[in-house]
């Protein structure tokens, strides 16, 4: 069949015709368990009638009113809800349409903060080699996702990337997690001193790393040290929680568990749960007040920012999380998912690591479990396993990242917060079969 849609891959993907709960059905009638909610997007499952109704109601009331002249009831209510949902002292919400826009907003917000305070030299943003912050050129320039960056390198400013916090690959033999965390964090200070502290605006990091290496949580103490370093040099700390935020790891923001309060936090996927494209950058009163004290506006706008229908959908998604008690399910169901993954893959010769927080878990596929040797890029392991799982009726989120020259293949499992124990059993069983089928294709 011909298609006029410019798809990313040479082949046209299956056509999704129905999505309900944890399942998606295609035009051929095949049904898949959506165990990763796409890219950790679907947090309440598909097709919830309460969200559908909220969307229809808002579309019939005010579908769009330009933010140059208007705010809207759902935007105001959503911003208030988000501020109340986190234990972090975040006070203002800038609502946009995608995670990439949220990251662009966050780094511009930091720059504007310094300008408002008369600190004009601060413009540099330091990030980490193991990171993905989005697909627009500005956000891509801050990340370390080699495959997604490579075609566009000549078009991007130089990235200022410091050590990741990735204990599985980088902790030294015998080093405690705490000692490793301090060592990893201290690479930020070295970079700040190299660049000159007065030129640095912000440090940007995913709390639990998603796309590049797959559900990698920080070690204890890492982000506390990062906060200390940022404070020492007057640098804003930006936590990118586009993937790991909104209760995906348990608390509203994952960083709430790490004892460090960022100045700006981005959120996205779980904010609208897939019902509408929506994301945001939240900041402290201190960041916002720097603008108002200086009588400055934040020069940043998108036609569809704070879109009323998207805000109504996101508010309804947050209502579902609250009304169905879903946030409280994440830790216990995440624990169950982890136990099942451990019992299926704990001794698997090609699963090197099982990691994550809450309902954000991943397995790392390696050629040799003992010395952690990765598969070659030409083996395409993550893609093979994704395909094998899809044939078995399971959707997972595959990824292959390269950090400091070391490749990795991983599969991410991030089901909706209302996933049942029986569904977890089916997910892990199919994933196990998919992993073995993918490995068999390369003679393992
Ligand atoms: N930041 C993180 C941590 C992400 O995982 C992503 C997307 O995967 C983005 C930013 C970009 O979000 P979007 O794809 O909605 O632009």
From TrEMBL:
Name of protein: Aspartate aminotransferase family protein
Pfam families: Aminotran_3
Keyword field: Aminotransferase, Pyridoxal phosphate, Transferase
Sequence similarity: Belongs to the class-III pyridoxal-phosphate-dependent aminotransferase family.
Cellular component GO terms, alphabetical: cytosol
Molecular function (Gene Ontology), one example: pyridoxal phosphate binding
Keyword flag RNA-binding: no
NCBIfam families: PRK07483.1
Organism superkingdom: Bacteria
InterPro entries to which the protein is assigned, alphabetical: Aminotrans_3, Aminotrans_3_PPA_site, PyrdxlP-dep_Trfase, PyrdxlP-dep_Trfase_major, PyrdxlP-dep_Trfase_small
CDD domains per the UniProt record, alphabetical: OAT_like
Keyword Transmembrane (UniProt): no
């Amino acid at each position: 069949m011909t298609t006029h849609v410019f798809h990313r891959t040479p082949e046209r993907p299956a056509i999704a015709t129905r999505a309900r709960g944890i399942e998606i059905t295609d035009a051929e009638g095949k049904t898949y368990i959506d165990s990763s909610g796409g890219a950790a997007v679907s947090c309440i499952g598909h097709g919830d009638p309460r969200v559908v109704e909220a969307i229809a109601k808002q579309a019939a009331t005010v579908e769009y009113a330009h933010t140059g002249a208007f705010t809207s009831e759902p935007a105001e209510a959503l911003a208030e809800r988000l501020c109340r949902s986190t234990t972090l002292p975040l006070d203002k919400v800038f609502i946009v349409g995608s995670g990439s826009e949220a990251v662009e907003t966050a780094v511009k917000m930091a720059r504007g903060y310094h300008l408002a305070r008369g600190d004009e030299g601060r413009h540099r943003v330091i990030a980490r080699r193991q990171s993905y912050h989005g697909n627009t050129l500005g956000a891509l320039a801050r990340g370390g996702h080699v495959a997604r960056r490579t075609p566009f390198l000549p078009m991007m400013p130089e990235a200022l990337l410091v050590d990741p916090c990735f204990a599985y690959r980088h902790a030294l033999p015998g080093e405690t997690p705490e000692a490793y965390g301090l060592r990893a964090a201290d690479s930020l200070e070295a970079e700040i001193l190299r660049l000159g502290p007065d030129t640095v605006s912000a440090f940007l990091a995913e709390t639990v790393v998603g796309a590049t290496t797959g559900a990698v949580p920080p070690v204890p103490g890492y982000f506390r040290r990062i906060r200390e370093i940022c404070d020492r040099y007057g640098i804003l700390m930006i936590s990118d929680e586009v993937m790991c935020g909104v209760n995906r790891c348990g608390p509203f923001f994952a960083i709430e568990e790490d004892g460090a309060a960022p100045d700006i936090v981005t959120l996205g996927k779980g904010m609208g749960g897939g019902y509408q494209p929506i994301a945001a950058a939240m900041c402290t009163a201190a960041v916002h007040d720097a603008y108002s004290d200086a009588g400055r506006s934040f020069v940043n706008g998108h036609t569809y920012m704070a879109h009323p229908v998207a805000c109504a959908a996101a508010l309804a998604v947050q209502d579902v999380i609250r009304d169905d008690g879903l946030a409280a399910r994440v830790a216990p169901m995440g624990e169950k998912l982890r136990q099942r993954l451990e019992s299926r893959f704990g001794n698997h010769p090609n699963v090197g690591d099982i990691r994550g927080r809450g309902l954000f878990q991943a397995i790392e596929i390696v050629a040799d479990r003992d010395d952690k040797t990765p598969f070659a890029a030409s083996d395409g392991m993550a893609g093979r396993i994704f395909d094998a799982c899809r044939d078995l009726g399971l959707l997972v989120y595959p990824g292959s990242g390269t950090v400091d020259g070391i490749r990795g293949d991983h599969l991410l499992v991030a089901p909706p917060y209302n996933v049942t124990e029986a569904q977890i059993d089916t997910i892990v069983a199919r994933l196990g079969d998919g992993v073995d089928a993918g490995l068999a294709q390369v003679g393992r």
